[in-house]
Amino acid sequence: MDETGKVINLRSAQTVCAAESGVGGHIVKKTERAAQLWAVLALAARTHQVVSYKMLEQLTGIARHGLGPLLGPIQEYCRRRRLPPLTAIVVKEDTGLPGEGFSGADVPDMLAAQARVYVFDWLSQGAPSPEDFEP
Asked: In the chain, where does DSSP find H-type helix?
């Protein structure tokens, strides 16, 4: 459990979060969290902003160490559909680069990858459903 009360269990199938829902906890699948993160990233891309892991944690309540496994399905979705690597705009504060799990571009090509993310019309794509992030 992290400091916000979320239970992070990085099993391959899901991330479990203790969410206040009036009746008790709610199980949130990894793919559902990926769909939520997609909306944040699409908005950031539209406004030409990078998002630090810290900022993403503050915006979503998902602990930084739990973000990588949730960004993976977004990265794979973009790769499968030949979209710009949306997760390229999620960066570490100390380096300004994505984390170790990012494979959408090499370091020398990172600015070009981010530029492709910024000019792409993410809103015309519509928001993917959680099922779209299934492997």
From this structure: 30-46, 53-60, 68-80, 110-119
How large is the C-alpha radius of gyration of the chain?
15
The C-alpha atoms of residue 47 and residue 1 are separated, in whole angstroms, by 33
pLDDT (tens digit, 9 = 90+) per residue, 92-133?
999 999 999 999 999 999 999 999 999 999 999 889 999 999
Task: Identify which of 112, 41, 50, 107 has the alpha carbon closest to the alpha carbon of residue 78.
Answer: 41
Q: Residue 2 CB: number of other CB atoms within 10 A?
A: 15
pLDDT tens profile 39-80: 999 999 999 999 999 999 999 999 999 999 999 999 999 999
DSSP code of 14? Answer: B
Using left for φ > 0, alpha for ψ between -120 and 50, and beta otherwise, residue 91 falls in beta
